Amino acid sequence: MSKQWIEVGSIEDIPALGARVIKTGQGQIAVFKALDGSIFALHNRCPHRQGPLSDGIVHGHKVTCPLHNWVIDLENGKADAPDNGCAPTVPLKVEEGVIFLKM
């Protein structure tokens, strides 16, 4: 099955340093906005204990999981050392203020 670009909302719907959750057939996807306006999408599960990353604290291009303070890089989904694991990223694009995920 080939992946398609799916419209998920406006960039204005996500506050700076915040996230919104998109429910998909592949599970929940968290779409984050950094303070500099960068947008990222990850599966909404910390690789440690499956905590909801969308409830975490966004700082720079990272999010800290609310359960056990693992720090996840929003660009590649990898946990910062000494922790080890990865939250899968989801390709996205923004066109005229509208966010699309490749699902």
UniProtKB/TrEMBL annotation:
One of its GO terms (biological process) is nitrate assimilation. The keyword Nucleotide-binding does not apply. It is an enzyme of class 1 (oxidoreductase). CDD domains: Rieske_NirD_small_Bacillus. SUPFAM superfamilies: ISP domain. Keywords: 2Fe-2S, Iron, Iron-sulfur, Metal-binding, Nitrate assimilation, Oxidoreductase. Its EC number is 1.7.1.4. InterPro entries: Rieske-like_NirD, Rieske_2Fe-2S, Rieske_2Fe-2S_sf. Gene3D superfamilies: Rieske [2Fe-2S] iron-sulphur domain. Residues 5-101 form the Rieske domain. One of its GO terms (molecular function) is 2 iron, 2 sulfur cluster binding. NCBIfam families: nirD_assim_sml (TIGR02378). This is Assimilatory nitrite reductase small subunit. It comes from mine drainage metagenome.
